Amino acid sequence: MSAFPPRLQPLLDDSSAAQQLARLLTDAGHECYLVGGRVRDAFVDRVPRDDEAVDVDVTTDARPDVVERLVRRWADAVWLQGQRFGTVGCRKGDVVIEITTFRAEVYRPDSRKPEVSYSDDIETDLSRRDFTVNAMAVRLPDPVLVDPHGGLVDLAAKRLRTPLAPEVSFLDDPLRMLRAARFVAQFGLTPDDALTAAVVELRHRLEIVSAERIRDELSKLLLVDDPSAGLWFLAEPAEQRVADRAAHQRQVVAGPREPAAQLVGHRGHPHQLHHRILSCPRQPPVQTRWLIDCLIQARTRLGTCGSAVG
Fold first, then answer.
1. What is the DSSP pairing of strand 95-101 with strand 56-60?
2. How many CB atoms lie within 10 A of CB 19?
3. Do 151 and 126 form a contact (C-beta atoms < 8 A)?
4. Helices 271-279 and 289-297, interaxial angle, to 10°?
5. Which of 164, 122, 149 shows the shortest CA–CA distance to 35?
6. CA distances from 216 to 48, 51, 182, 229 (A)
7. By the 8 A CB rule, do 276 and 291 touch?
8. How many CA atoms lie within 13 A of 91 on its CB side?
9. Other C-beta atoms lying within 10 Å of the C-beta of residue 248
10. Backbone phi, then psi, for 253, in 5-degree steps?
11. What is the number of other CB atoms lying within 10 angstroms of the CB of residue 58?
């Protein structure tokens, strides 16, 4: 256990709610893994904001009806709003835990909702997650790190990749293309070439994502300490990013560099977007509404984002 970062230790303590739940599941013949942001953040020693939810995320091979039956007699409260998507929520003391069955979900081309199918192993579940830095798990109750896609190495290298081919990941959930901007800004990660190219190619898929989910993801981006890198990821012309990558490989560059600020539509002088992005770290979130409007009106890399939000 000592090999794990200090921020994980409270969850790995034998008396913790997570370990109690793990023993409940494993005694019934099932597996239990700690997953999600708590695992990732512990390895970068990130302190959550005061207004940020710090729930515990657990995944298991037990199906939702089995999970519900097991936790009913253990938890102080149980809720089932997410059960049709494979998630059972519960509270033990002051700890909120979300328990999700191993998943292998995909979106239908015309659907805003995931079509959930379950898997029977942790490796498949982790392969369907958004980025490698989120595709790590800690087996419980005897802690063992499970990292089949090199998420820990990518965290150290400041690299943003998807576990499977990015085209597969973004077809599973197109919102991940927008989420990539937040991870670029929040963790200082650099997206790899394949991820960037897939965002350019598949940006139209955001049309199936609800306006509420897009709004929520944009809000999360703007709440990071310095969102400017993520905003540039969205606003910089796709052609320029591809051209820059190609130039490094001694390929033909398609055209001259166009400043990202030139992408602003009819809202004011193009340099205003440049100024807003540069000053964003110094602005409270309530003052960034104009910036969101600029991005929505711009021909951004995620070009259909405006139609979904507006």
1. parallel
2. 19
3. no
4. 140
5. 122
6. 18, 15, 11, 18
7. yes
8. 6
9. 8
10. -85, 130
11. 28
How far lies 161's CA from each of 165, 247, 289, in Å? Answer: 9, 21, 30
Tell me the two tokens of residue 198: 């897939």
Question: What single-letter amino acid sits at 10?
Answer: P
Cα-based distances in Å from 277 to 202, 267, 287, 292, 294: 25, 15, 12, 10, 10
Q: List the one residue out of 156, 139, 137, 160 whose CA is nearest residue 147.
A: 137
d(CA 74, CA 31): 17
Alpha helices for the chain (secondary structure H)? 9-12, 17-27, 37-43, 64-72, 122-127, 151-157, 166-172, 175-187, 193-202, 211-222, 228-235, 238-248, 271-279, 289-297, 305-309
Q: Which two structure tokens, joined as six digits, stand for 22? A: 């793990």
The number of residues in the chain equals: 310
**Tokens describing residue 209:** 């994502």
Supply φ then ψ for residue 292, to 5 degrees: -60, -45
62 vs 69: CA distance, rounded Å: 11
d(CA 237, CA 301) in angstroms, rounded, equals 6
The angle at the Cα of 115, spanning 109 to 116, to the nearest 5 degrees, equals 150
Domains and CATH numbers, the chain: 6-156 (3.30.460.10), 158-309 (no CATH)
Q: What is the pTM of this model?
A: 0.78
Name the more confident of 215 and 69: 69
Give pLDDT tens digits for 14-26. 999 999 999 999 9
In this predicted model, what pLDDT tens digit does every residue of 119-154 receive, in sequence order? 999 999 999 999 999 999 999 999 999 999 999 999
**Biggest alpha carbon distance in the chain?**
65
> Would you state the structure tokens that stand for residue 294, as one six-digit string?
């600029």
Secondary structure of residue 298 in the 3-state scheme: coil
